[in-house]
Amino acid sequence: RSCSFTGFGTVQSRKVAKSLSRSSVRSRMALKPPKAYSSLQKGALIWDPKPLQVKRIFEALKKGLNEHLEAHQAELDYLSGRHKDTKRNSRLAFYYDLDKQIRSVERYIRKLEFHISKVEELYEAYCIQCRLRDGATNMKQAFSLSPATKASRESLLELYRNVQECTEDMCFIEGALEVHLGEFHVKMKGLVGFARLCPGDQYEVFVRLGRQKWRLKGKIETDDSQTWDEEEKIFIPNLHEKFEIKVTELRGLATVLVGVVTCDSISFFSTKPQAIVVDITELGTIKLQLEVLW
Question: What is the CATH number of domain 184-293?
C-alpha cells in the first residue's frame, strides 16, 4: 500500500491519525499532521519503515541542532557581557541596540530548544512503536508455529492487525520527523578534471534527491573558467533517499555519460557549509565540487 504523507487527507492517513489518537503515548505528544513542503506533495509514502536509517538521521540531526544551540548560546554570552559594559558607560543608543540583539538571540534559542525537544519526542514515540511492532511480530511467529485452533487463529489475526497499526504509525511519525529536517542549500562550485576539461567542452549535471531534481548545464571557457546556467538549488532532506548525481558531456546532438554516483546526506547536518568533492569517474579524473549549507 502507498499513500501521500504530505497531504494527510487520504483515508489511510485519517486511519493513522485515528490510530495515533488511541495510543496513550502519542496522545500525550499531541501530534498534528505536519504542513508539508510543496516540493514533496507529489511523493508517495511506502509503508516500509527503516528504523536503522531513521536512527542515523536522528543522531545527525540532533548533533547539528545542538551545534547551532551552542553557537547561539556563545553569541548570547558575548552580547550579554558587552551589554553590562555598555550599561556602565551609559551609551544609551548602543545599549538599546545590544538589548535588541540579545532579545533576538534569546528568541532564536528558545525556538531551537523547542525544535530539539520536538525531534526527541517524535523519535521516542517512533522507538516505542518500533518495539511494539517487533514484539507483535515475534508473537505472531510463535503463534504460527503452534497447533491451529480457533483461538490461535483469532490471536494471529489480532497480532497481524497490531503489526499493521504499528507499521502505519511508524510511517506517520517518519513523515512528521521529516518536516523537522530543515533545508539543504546546494551550490554548484564547478567541475575539476585537470587535463580532461578543455575550453569549449559542455556538460550537464543532474542532481536528484527522491522526487526533487536539479538539472544544470555548464561550459568550459577559454580562460579555463566555468559558466553554469544555475548556481544554487534548495533541497528538502529525505529520511530514506540519497543524493544521486549524474554528469554527461554534451557533444553537439550527442551525449556521453561521464559517470553516476550517490552521496549520503548524513554529514550535511552541520552549522558550517560543507564542501563536497565527488569522484564522477572511477579513476577520479573528473570531480564535481558542491557546497551544502544546512
Answer: 2.60.40.150
